[in-house]
Amino acid sequence: MRLLGHPIHPMLVHFPIVFWTVAAAAYVADAAGMGGEGAGAVAMYSNGAGLIMAMLAMIAGLLELRSIEGRSRTMQVAIWHMMLMATAWFCFVLALVLPISAGPHVDHSMASLAGVASAVVGFLFMGAGGWLGGRLVYEFGTGVKNQPEPRANPIHRS
Ligand code: HEM
Asked: Has residue 146 been placed in a domain?
């Protein structure tokens, strides 16, 4: 799926990466009592924005899968990339939902701690998924147009 000749998935992925990175840091800062009044709100809104942008990135990524040959190493890596990112998404949903799900029968501080842990685990999954995304592009050339033949790249001395 392309816009003006450029694949859309890489245009979108920066948004969830930034939002979720800010969210994870804010969740940790809030739990450590370092972020002041606003850290909890920053974590929640940044997480929500990350979830929405990741959903858009996932749609574009799924459409990009059509350009990859079915039984190939590239497809295997793409499937792993997809699963890691889907797990990251689920972790950040938990981070959002757990702290507000605390009721009379659930200890609020335990629920908040579970939320922070989910955000940190989600961040790690996102990092691993992003690394595989990089492999897809820079190792296998997925989405790269008119790939040049590998050359010796000689050094010219005068
Ligand atoms: C259903 C889920 C997803 C699928 C099927 C998918 C698929 C792909 C594919 C095919 C590529 C290589 C070609 C291209 O860039 O278009 C890629 C690259 C990448 N993806 Fe995903 N993706 C998914 C979700 C995500 C999410 C949610 C993120 C970010 C949070 C993400 C981050 C990346 C990154 C960083 C790259 C490397 C881009 C670059 O360096 O240019 N992906 N993905």
From this structure: no
